Each structure stands twice: as C-alpha cells, then as structure tokens.
Amino acid sequence: MPAKFNGLDKSTLAKWMDKIPSDLYVTCPYCKQSVYHQKLGPFQECPHCGYGFRLGAAARLKIVTDKFEAFDAELAVDPALVDDQYAEKLTKAKQHSGLPESVVTGMATIDSLQVAIGVMDSNFMMGSLGSATGEKLTRLFEEATRRRLPVVLYTASGGARMQEGLHSLMQMAKVTQAVTAHGEAGLCYLVVLTDPTTGGVTASFAMEADITLAEPHALIGFTGRRVIESTLHIKPPADFQRAETLLANGFVDDIVARSAQKATIVSLLKLSQGGA
C-alpha cells in the first residue's frame, strides 16, 4: 500500500477500510469476478457469467411459486440412527438452515398450474441424502401420483449422507421406485439441477426426470474431481462436470437462468399436459 492514497495516510485508510462490511462485495465461485452484492439482483445471479449463487429453499420457492403449502414439514431422522457426533452435526445444520431436514416438499401453484414440488437445500449438511430426505421425497412423488400432479424438483446435494450408512444409500432405490410409479401413471417429472448436484442424488432420481433442466455453470456429477484424478491418474477437463458439458453430451435438455425458470417450467408442464 502506498504511503498515502487520495490524501489519506496508511493508518487512516486502514481504519476506514475496516468499517466496510465484509459482504459488500462477493466473489463469483465460477468466473472469480468480484461483484457488488446489489448487482446480483433478486435472482442472485453473477452479472459477468450468469452463475446462480446458492439459494436456500425458502428463497427459491419465493422465486418460482405463487403459492406454497408444505407437508411433512417436521419429518426428521429416526433417533435410532443418530449417535452423539451425528446429533451435533444435525443440530448445527438445523441452526444454519432453519430447516429440520435437507429438503422442503409440498404442493404449490406456479402461474395457474398445480404441482407437487421439492427443493433441496445445500445449507443443511450440503443437501445430503439421508433417510428422512428420502422419505420426504418418496412421499412427495406418491402424493403427486395420488393427486395426478406433475412434480417439480430442485436438486442441490453433495450426495448420500454417510453418517447413516446403508440407510442413506437405500434412499436412492426407494425414491427411484416412487419416481417410476409416478411416470407409469403418465405424469410428468421435471427436475432443475442446481450447483452442486453430485453423488448418489445424481446417480438416482436427479437423472430420472422426463425433463431435465440445469442452471448455468452448475456443478453436476457423481464422483468428485480429486477422486477421479487419484484413481484414474488423469486430469479431466476443467469444465467436464459443468452444466454446459452435460448439455453438449445429451444429459441435460436445457440450461435456464433463474430469471426465466418460472415461465419455462410453466410452458413445459403445459406442453406435457397437451396444452399450448
């Protein structure tokens, strides 16, 4: 730092800079550009590259739905599966996210359409798939099948919750069974893959939708880069697990910015129901 800056000495300048809120500027995780926080706008999108900053479930529901009614809101992990260390993690996750589990489910109105909707929240143990998460998602699809409603699901997850061992892994098959029954009833399932969607969630219900959308530059994959590099002794391309690469290789139907998601979802669901 120079001795003076715009007539201010070092000590005065340092005191002044200490008063600037630390969150006034944020760094985009994708393009690494520094962004004034108000420039992110209501959709929390980077103005330089379009990356969508991570959102909690409540904020995402506010963006995409006109009316939302939660069910199974208090469903949580079976105490029999929880040891002291896991209990501490759960307590911290609940305090950090304000949620009892890593997914919020319920019935919603989007424009004029009635849908069953689920939103995974990365603020709760990185959206990990635990037994209660799987139960809530299974019930979501089962209720949608009973009511003959389409399902809209926003995924955000680091994968299976290893603290629950086999109970966590079995949720992949459990949710898949409910997804299959929903599809066999002739109903539409639309998923929006957000950053990050990885592990067992990607290996199961996140990739089983009739319509698969993704947010710009979202990280989507199964195994993490470091595991691939150490196991296969290769260096994958920098963008090999990004939404744009999945779109180019047929794993994603379209990439949709948050500002356009509501209209896009409504249009696609109407088409799926034979409307215009």
TrEMBL record:
Keyword annotations: ATP-binding, Cytoplasm, Fatty acid biosynthesis, Fatty acid metabolism, Lipid biosynthesis, Lipid metabolism, Metal-binding, Nucleotide-binding, Transferase, Zinc, Zinc-finger
Pfam families assigned to the protein according to its UniProt record, in alphabetical order: Carboxyl_trans
Main location: cytoplasm
Compartments (UniProt record): Cytoplasm
Binding sites annotated in the UniProt record for Zn(2+): 28, 31, 46, 49
InterPro entries xrefs: AcCoA_carboxyl_beta, Acetyl_CoA_COase_Trfase_b_su, ClpP/crotonase-like_dom_sf, COA_CT_N
EC code(s) of this entry: 2.1.3.15
GO biological process, one term: malonyl-CoA biosynthetic process
Pathway as given in its UniProt record: Lipid metabolism; malonyl-CoA biosynthesis; malonyl-CoA from acetyl-CoA: step 1/1
Signal peptide: none
All residue ranges annotated as the CoA carboxyltransferase N-terminal domain in the record: 24-276
GO CC terms of this entry: acetyl-CoA carboxylase complex
Co-factor: note: Binds 1 zinc ion per subunit.
Keyword Glycosyltransferase: no
Assembly and interaction partners: Acetyl-CoA carboxylase is a heterohexamer composed of biotin carboxyl carrier protein (AccB), biotin carboxylase (AccC) and two subunits each of ACCase subunit alpha (AccA) and ACCase subunit beta (AccD).
Family named by the database record: Belongs to the AccD/PCCB family.
Name of this protein: Acetyl-coenzyme A carboxylase carboxyl transferase subunit beta
Originating organism: Levilactobacillus senmaizukei DSM 21775 = NBRC 103853
Lineage start: Bacteria, Bacillati, Bacillota, Bacilli, Lactobacillales
